[in-house]
Design a protein that fits this description.
The complex is a heterodimer. Helices cover 49% and strands 2% of the residues of chain A. Chain A is built from 36 helices and seven strands. Chain A has a three-stranded antiparallel beta sheet, with no helix packed on it. A two-stranded antiparallel sheet of chain A has the order 1-2. A two-stranded antiparallel sheet of chain A has the order 6-7. The C terminus of chain A is likely disordered. By secondary structure, chain B is mostly beta strands. Helices cover 11% and strands 44% of the residues of chain B. In chain B, strand 12 and strand 13 form a beta hairpin. The termini of chain B are far apart. Classes of the chains: A mainly alpha, B mainly beta. Chains A and B meet through loops of A and strand 9 and strand 10 of B.
Chain lengths: 928, 234
Amino acid sequence: MDLYYNTRRLNQIFLVLNLAAVALIGVVLYKEHRPEWYRYQATYVRLVKEFSKKEYDRIKEELQKDQEFQELNRQLREVSQKISQDPAYSELSERIQRLRREVSETQTRLGELRLDYLHFEDEYFWATNPARKTRYEQLIRAYQPEIDKLVGELEEKERALQEAQEAFAQLDRERQVLLKKIGDRQFELTVAETAYRASLAEKPKIRQIHRPERNLVDRCITCHAGYDKGYQWKRFIQQKISEAIKKKAPRKDRQILQALLPHPRYEKCAQCGHTQDQGQGQCQQCGSKRLKEDPPVFTNHPFDQFGCTSCHRGQGVALRKDQAHAYDEKHWETPMLPKDYVEATCGHCHRYEMVVPGAPRLTRGRQLFALLGCFGCHDAKGYERAVKIGPSLTHIASKVSPEWMFQWLKDPDSWAPHSRMPMFFLKDDEAWALVAYLTSVSQPLKFSLKYPGGDVPRGKQLVKDLGCLGCHNIRGLGGPTDREQGSRLLGKFDFGPDLSAIGSKVPSGDWLYNWLLDPKSMDPMARMPKMRLTLQEAADITAYMLTLKETPSVQKVAFSSRPDLSNPELIDRGFRLVANYGCHGCHNIPDPKAQALTKIGKDLSSEADLDPHTVDFGRLVLEIFDKAPTYWDRVYIWLETKLKDPRVFRDGLRMPRFGLSDEEVKALVTALLSFTEREIPKESFRDPERDASLAAAVVGREVVMGYNCLGCHVIEDFGGDIWHLYEDGMQPPNLKSQGLRTNHDWLFRFIKDPTLGTGRQHAIRPWLKVRMPTFGFDDETINSIIRYFAALDEQSVFKGFRSPYRPDPHLAREGKQLFDQLQCLSCHPTGFVQPGADVSQLAPSLNLAWSRLQPEWVRQFILDPGSFQPGTRMPTFFPFDEETGRQQSPLPQLLGGDPIRQARALTEYVMSLGAPTVTGTPKGQINR
Amino acid sequence: MKLHRLIAASVACTLIAGTLFGQSTIKGKVVFQGTPLKPRMISMKQDKKCDAVHKGKPVAGEDFVLNPNGTLRWVLVYVKSGAKPGKAPSRPVVLDQHDCIYRPHVFGIMVGQPLEIRNSDPLLHNIHFVSKKNGTFNIGQPVKGMKATKVFRAPELPPSSFFKCDVHPWMKSWVGIFDHPYFAVTDGNGTFTISGLPAGSYEIEAWHERLGTQSQKVTVKAGETKEITFTFKR
């Protein structure tokens, strides 16, 4: 047959195509059966079997080799044998059994009788028929003695049983101790064995953490399957990785091993402070077993509750690496955060907290955000209450000269290297226009006192002693030594203006003198507190300040000649510049026109939700696109660049340069990335509106930051900047556990007036030189501070009205004996201290105890001072006995040597010091 | 003849063993040159009981003690590098508080070796231990004859590890914590002896509270006794 086609040829083609199709199906089937995640899982299952077998064998072998363990087992055998041969043992156990039976029988019988008895009583009560009443009365009378007898019998038997049990425990004690010791040692083995058996059943599968209430379906743990394993697993995998490198295994295999490493978690030793990988059981430096998770993130956010994407973001349901990480996925809006910025997500739930423990970079970023006054130009949720950070310019013309103003506006850093005033890149004529405007609106100031002249060395000493350096830097007075170059590290002497050249800035002695005496009289919004200086002290400090002239190292800005400052055109231009650059965001300007201005910057409340296609890269577009390894990196690079060099993108931008260090930029970017408007699951979100103590902490922290309490005090483990300038014991107090320590009403009075109305500068430690200032807070602000301290220690502030604390006089008498024998007076003085005595070794006076301290705090502090105030000089008198783990008293003859009772007695005595008598006069004053 | 060989062989063996496994000793003294520093004069007026013990007179501190022969007391001499860790003895080191002074003023102790802290004064002392690697503790001993025992876990050198008393600010004692037993403190003659060292080369360091550290390299053969001298100049 003649055909148009060649059958044979076609058959060949079909065969080839068929084979290709079959092969393709094979490949597809294989790929489907062995997707990417399967390789991870297969490796994991293989390794977990190997690992748990190895662990089990290791522990078993160790135990077998362990002489002590073998010895314990041998002892146990011996002891058991000895006991079982002891006739008392079998006799006792029989007796216990018998007594138990008898007790339970008696109890049953007694119960029955009592039921009857109740029934008779009931009948007797309701009976109307006299005969019936008599009958039940007789019955009741008959039952009574029997019940009494049974009760007596029961008591006796119970006592006998207890005695027998005690005797038995005594006999059996040795064996029980041994059993416990052996059990402790075998515990690890049991755990390892369970893990080993469980591992045998492991199979490769998709694993996930599913939390519908938090919108979580996190399959990350399919590949990162070793995420919750401990230190031994880490070592094991690391070993495998190095083996793989040695064997030159394919890159993918090494990647798989990397993915199987556990999540890094650290522990800090309570004894020596050494930080190490979690799961080693004891400190690698000092051997102590008291280890604490550090930072304590995982105990509060367990994996099974929060999953992975709560913190790292990414696409939880995805099973392919590129999709799950989503760095380059344009359409997945929450890609994984780079390592540098991972703390940003902490801030999504902890939206309103300035301090987020365990997230140091975020905390620092948020503090910088507040400290640099970013909210002056940008709206941001949570910063609505923030106060302008710059000084008021109401009387600026009487404070500084136009030349100084010009120089400052041109280049603040040339004057004060860490100034918070940023660099605006003003041209000379612009700077002069601003000077003209500010001078024209400045209001005249009348000084109430005239500077009489003072003593320079005395003034210098006062500046060192009083604690001025807590907020101000003065070069050469122990200033910022531990600070990064060119950075605005939190607090640390830079809260107020740098005073190294204050004499050139403010040449008027009158101004300084009046300001030092009462800052608020010159600027009601001033944050500088009143130091309660005497006229002499203020004069001396002023004299010292006036000697602080410019040092040659300060680079001067070239002057252009001063134009006519009263020119209305120039003044008007100055106003337009203020409006353009937003000076009013930080400074109060006494001009109604300026006060009507609004914030000039963009709202940053949703800065975390930026998408690269909404960002204006300006003239850097190509550069950034080239530099960014992935799509989403473009946002981070843009943010970093904007903070470092804000005007680089195009002409006409207005944001000034803050001169931030790289680390500060990272911290600020972390803070910005924490400002999200995305919906956060209600279960996770920390909402001050639903949590009163959180609200108290949030507001309190704002006050504490806003008035730089941290310059002097240590609060929440931050601050104490001036501590190194003072001797031990002469520093401002660490305010740890403040909420527990003092009475809230006392604290209120103290903050209101630190002299407590005594007229003395220091009410508690009269020998201190550093001085707690009078801040002049309104009542509500003080309350917010007290609520904050209370919230930190989980106390509620308003405890209800109570009658004054009445110490127990009997216990107090015992306490007095303890007080004398422990020689508390060696350190705690009462009353005034002789001038010239070495006061640096003294402890707070106890005459204020009754009004100031909370008894519960006193008791706990006496029992373990170190845990309340690390580094305190108060020794513990009740040290822990290493063997029993109990506290021991040095005075066994008092109160049965019981530390708890002794501490109570001491508390009662201490609290009786300064307690009012019925007539209202304080009693119990003691003299040294 | 055979006997001779045997004797010769055994003598050779003993000699070789002696040189291989013999223990050597480093002896020496610490000399001071220059104008002596003034020791801190301690006034105990703050605590009347302490003051009474010393009859109201100020006491010379032990921060700088120059012996009559021109040598220094209270210098801690130790093998800084080259020594292998050893096992700690169970015999405790005693730190006594007597007449309101810590005794001894400087001492060494091994990791794991018990330290017994005693109060021999009829008044309150507190023992405040400060260190970087061994944590801190602060215990009060208000009664005469009280004892406390502590053990250290990590090697550490003064000045980062020391004892102080917060009741009596002048009381201070420096401690060197070692993982080997090769350390000594100079005595009233300014001498020290470190014995039991295996043959080898070591770096020996001497530390004085106010004069800092000095070190030198020493190589000892088995069974040898070497003499060295440290000289602190001012």
